[in-house]
Design goal:
The chain is α+β, with helices and mostly antiparallel strands and 170 residues long. Helix content is 42%, strand content 14%. A hairpin with a 5-residue loop joins strand 4 and strand 5. The mean pLDDT is 78.
């Protein structure tokens, strides 16, 4: 399943079924060759056009003929949510290198980074500080400042007066 760009020409489309664009999220379910007259595919591809949550049309090409157009739209939306989750991981967990390549090593590193992120985020929230958008919430940076005794007064007060049980129970 691939999202089609706007400049891809759909030539001689044939409807697989009639769609009711007013009530259904799927606007079109067609088969057609793709490409320009100079470089056009010989095979007919299935193209499903549906609306996202913001009213924009999304065109997806697939070779899946045995499932409904609604299922294809749901699969694409679920795939997009997974892509957004991985983007969030890359932006917030700061995992520049993997410690191992086995499934257990990758999961262990991801879970450890996620736990550290949640702990730091909870501590930031308890102190009442916001993380600047340009600054990542990083354990390494926090630990370095702690060891060099360069944490702000808010942090020193928090670390001296609260224990971990207090941080999570208001």
């Amino acid at each position: 399943m691939i999202r089609l760009k706007e400049n891809v020409h759909l030539v001689t489309p044939r409807a697989l079924r009639q769609c009711n664009p007013e009530n259904a999220p799927v606007k079109r379910d067609i088969t057609c060759p793709l490409g320009t007259p100079a470089n056009r595919s010989q095979k007919r591809h299935r193209v499903v056009v549906f609306e996202d949550g913001h009213g924009h049309d999304i065109r997806v090409v697939t070779n899946l003929m045995h499932i409904t157009a609604e299922e294809i739209a749901l699969m694409y939306k679920a795939r997009w949510q997974i892509e957004l989750f991985f983007r969030w991981i890359k932006q917030h967990l700061n995992i520049p290198t993997r410690f191992g390549t086995t499934e257990n090593a990758v999961y262990g590193q991801l879970f450890s980074a996620l736990i550290v992120y949640v702990l730091l985020k909870t501590m930031y929230d308890r102190v009442g500080l916001r993380v600047p958008k340009h600054e990542a919430l990083e354990f390494v940076r926090f630990a370095r400042l702690l060891l060099l005794n360069k944490l702000s007064a808010h942090w020193r007060y928090l670390l001296c007066t609260l224990n971990m049980k207090d941080i999570f129970h208001s």
